[in-house]
Amino acid sequence: MATIITEECINCGACEPECPNTAIYEGGVQWEAADGSMHDAISEDLYYIVPHKCTECVGFFDQEQCAAVCPVDCCVPDPNNSEAEETLIERAKKLHPDKAFPSPLPPELTLFSNPNRQRVPARRPD
Ligand code: SF4
Ligand code: SF4
């Protein structure tokens, strides 16, 4: 799943420089796609994550770097956007065509090997 920023965000900006995919933008700022095209901000008021650019840090770290630095723990797995490791590493390859990613990924490059990784909370029965 892509990571999302919740409404608890205090706009401190700590997460933005930590993202290996430049998937995090300040509220109101346009985001740039891999092909260089610019797109309207997803949030006007709060920092936001572009789901098409977020790999949950797969390919780079064993945990989400935005979540690791966020002082209010508002970078969380998106319960509505669950994605497999394979999908996420393919995204990383497209975002970084000049970078070689080892296969299989060693534990330090994928949160899927991290026993402490955040998981989508179980949904309550309706
Ligand atoms: Fe960027 Fe990783 Fe956070 Fe996704 S989880 S927005 S890739 S720092
Ligand atoms: Fe918002 Fe957390 Fe990022 Fe700070 S680190 S801008 S509080 S999401």
Secondary structure: elements and pairs:
Elements: E1 3-5, E2 24-25, E3 31-32, E4 38-39, E5 48-49, H1 65-69, E6 75-77, H2 85-95
Antiparallel strand pairs: 1-6, 2-5, 3-4
Bound molecules: iron/sulfur cluster (SF4) (2 copies).
One iron/sulfur cluster binds at residues 3, 18-21, 23-24, 49, 54-57, 64-66, 75.
What does this structure look like?
There is one protein chain. By secondary structure, the protein is largely without helices or strands. 13% of the residues lie in helices and 11% in strands. The protein has helices spanning 65-69, 85-95; strands at residues 3-5, 24-25, 31-32, 38-39, 48-49, 75-77. It is globular. The two termini are 22 Å apart.
Descriptive labels:
126 residues, little secondary structure, two-stranded antiparallel sheet, globular, binds iron/sulfur cluster
Task: Kindly summarize this structure in a few lines.
The chain is built from two helices and six strands; from the N terminus they run E-E-E-E-E-H-E-H. The structure holds iron/sulfur cluster (2 copies).
Q: Give the SSE string.
A: EEEEEHEH
Radius of gyration: 14 Å
User: β content, as a range?
Assistant: 5-15%
Number of helices: 2
Strand-pairing-aware structural class: little secondary structure
For the sheet with most strands, the description reads:
2 strands, antiparallel
Q: Regions with pLDDT < 50 over 5+ consecutive residues?
A: none
Query: Helical proportion?
Result: 10-25%
Oligomerization state: single chain
How many E strands? 6
Strand ordering within the main sheet: 1-6
Average of per-residue pLDDT values = 93
